[in-house]
From TrEMBL:
Annotated source species: Mesorhabditis belari
Protein name: Cationic amino acid transporter C-terminal domain-containing protein
Annotated membrane topology: Multi-pass membrane protein
GO MF entries: amino acid transmembrane transporter activity
Primary site of residence: membrane
GO CC terms, sorted: plasma membrane
InterPro entries registered for this protein in UniProt: AA/rel_permease1, CAT_C
Keyword Transmembrane: yes
Domain Cationic amino acid transporter C-terminal: 503-553
Superkingdom assignment: Eukaryota
Length: 595
């Protein structure tokens, strides 16, 4: 039997049979269900959890611009996700996309972070759900808990053990476990109710608008709109990115969508449009009602309306907050076990987590285990700690998806148009092209992407560290910009494959490269402690992968079977993705998924 190197095992890619839509889960969701799943996931977390914190402590009134920037960056990522949703209608979202694009190691890194993303998202919203309920009871819940159990005087933890957050997280996990169609109906009802409340709240908010809060300067000569400077706006955009994490959860429903290659892209765009308008409108209304320094980060909208004496609006926004945060928790809890299921089914984490219940057809073990973990985190950790940590993992996942789009577009074993070994894989001839021809196209694209990312990091660090005000920082920015442009044009000279898909991102490699740039800039603006926490989480994950996942991977087992059946075989091709033939379309005209 052939022995495979450690490197070959880490970077082997996932084999997906062309046109295969078989799944253990039930295909019962339409475009409407999936759109409201994404809207519900995103709209509660961004508006009711994050807006107050980002407005008061990070960006000031420029939070409106920060949300717009975060929405733009998210749209770029959403375009990349939409193409992958059309290519590979499977559960797992970014994890699956990375597995078929860049290999098993990066797939595990991204999958492990996506699991953390959904877990922390649900925990953060559960904590804020409890905070809103506590505000409505005039701190009765907090005071009773502190009197009975005591306070928690630990850094990064909450002031008290939040029993309500624990119970709410467990209840939402139970709702997710009753089955996809029934649970999405629950989500759709509360999402539509929340959208109605948002319209009411924005109307009341602009009624009390005071535009003097945005114009001019303070007594200290600081801009009222940019009290933390433009750097604060960028930092706010990085934190606000947390608000847009829901759209990648749409892709986790790929194995439960009736027509995934159409439903996933359409749902993504509908969801992004609805949510971005809602975020900007709500943030503007809040920033115009009261000075940003007077915001209560635990219940921003409710206390703002209370200060303005509008009792009706206060109770309306509280109702909307409860509905929005309920659906946001549901979206995270819905996506979380499906990401775990995808990794466990591939053998990268413990396989017993992939067990699907015979009646409800949902991954029951993953729901129980990670639902309880989410509930424990919600009861212990404060919201600000969760948000900073969450944004980093999300941005990392989106960045790898953008890179995978470029890689797959230039992977010419996907079509018979151009061969990696043929000199015509260049669009044009130029000085030095003879040297590049010695590299395979795959190697050339990987090197160019690495240089591009390195250039983005150098460029971004010159700004985030403040060095741009000195000659050395300007020099670093110029070097970073040159490296990025050279690598971009390097990618552009290659010819793309001609695979036909239900949806394809326009202007590749520009759109994915711009997404990479935006994500890199926002990651560099996150606090250093977020990177330390990420390193700890990844250390735990890599221990699981190296000790268990690498040996129990489905691709490892496939290779062993292939080698044992054919001892003379020198290699096993683990990634194959060919377009559907016309004869296949004639036999199955309803299947418009192209591989």
């Amino acid at each position: 039997m052939k022995l495979y190197s450690f490197r070959e095992r880490m970077f082997r890619t996932k084999h997906l049979p062309p046109g295969s839509l078989e799944t253990e889960m039930k295909r019962c969701l339409n475009t409407f269900d999936i759109t409201l799943l994404g809207v519900g996931h995103m709209i509660g977390a961004g508006i009711y959890v994050l807006t107050g914190h980002a407005l008061k402590d990070i960006a000031g009134p420029s939070i409106v611009l920060a949300f717009a920037l975060a929405g733009f960056a998210s749209l770029l990522s959403a375009l990349c996700y939409a193409e992958f949703g059309a290519r590979f209608p499977k559960a797992g979202s970014a994890y699956t996309y990375a597995y078929v694009g860049v290999g098993e190691f990066w797939a595990f890194v991204i999958g492990w972070n996506v699991v953390l993303e959904h877990m922390l998202s649900a925990a953060a919203v559960a904590r804020s759900w409890s905070g809103y309920l506590n505000a409505l009871t005039n701190d009765w819940i907090k005071n009773t808990t502190v009197h009975t159990i005591g306070e928690m005087n630990f850094t990064y933890f909450g002031d008290y053990l939040d029993i309500v957050a624990f119970i709410v997280a467990c209840f939402i996990a139970f709702c997710v476990g009753i089955g996809s169609k029934g649970s999405t109906r629950f989500n759709s009802f509360f999402t539509l109710l929340n959208l109605c409340v948002i319209v009411v709240v924005v109307g009341f908010g602009f009624r009390y608008a005071d535009f003097s809060l945005w114009s001019g300067e303070t007594e200290n000569g600081v801009s009222k709109f940019f009290p933390f400077g433009f750097a604060g706006t960028l930092a706010g955009a990085a934190s606000c990115f947390f608000a847009f994490v829901g759209f990648d959860g749409l892709a986790t429903a790929g194995e439960e969508a009736r027509n995934p290659s159409r439903a996933i892209p359409l749902s993504t765009f509908y969801c992004m449009g609805i949510v971005t308008v809602a975020y900007v409108s709500m943030a503007a209304a809040l920033a115009l009602m009261v000075p940003y320094t007077d915001i209560d980060v635990n219940a921003a909208f409710a206390t703002a309306f209370q200060q303005r004496g509008s009792t009706i609006a206060k109770w309306a926004v509280s109702l909307g907050a409860i509905c929005g945060m309920t659906t946001s928790m549901f979206g995270s809890m819905f996506s979380l076990p499906r990401c775990v299921y995808a990794m466990a089914q591939d053998g990268l984490i413990f396989r017993w987590l992939s067990r699907v219940h015979g009646t409800t057809r949902v991954p029951v073990n993953a729901i129980v285990v990670f639902g309880l973990m989410t509930a424990v985190i919600a009861s212990l950790v404060n919201v600000n700690t969760l948000v900073d940590f969450l944004s980093l993992g999300t941005l990392l996942a989106y960045s790898i998806v953008a890179a995978c789009v470029i890689i797959l577009r230039y992977q010419h074993d996907l079509s018979d148009t151009v061969s990696d070994d043929h000199p015509e894989y260049f669009r044009l001839r130029f000085p030095g092209s003879g040297t590049l021809e010695k590299l395979s196209m795959k190697t050339g694209i990987h090197i160019a992407l690495t240089i591009m990312l390195f250039g983005f990091i150098i460029f971004g660090l010159s700004f985030t560290t403040g060095l741009i005000t000195h000659w050395f920082g300007i020099f670093l920015a110029i070097i970073g910009a040159l490296l990025s442009m050279i690598s971009f044009f390097w990618i552009c000279v290659y010819k793309q494959n001609n695979v036909q898909l239900a949806f394809k991102v326009r202007f590749v490699p520009f759109i994915p490269a711009l997404s990479l740039f935006c994500n890199s800039m926002m990651m560099l603006n996150l606090p250093g402690l977020a990177w330390i926490r990420l390193a700890i989480w990844m250390t735990i994950g890599m221990a699981i992968y190296l000790l268990y996942g690498m040996r129990h991977s489905t691709e490892e087992e496939t290779r062993k079977i292939a080698d044992s059946s054919n001892p003379q075989q020198q290699s096993v091709k683990v990634f194959q993705n060919t377009p559907i033939k016309e004869t296949d379309l004639e036999q199955n005209p309803k299947n418009d998924t192209h591989f």
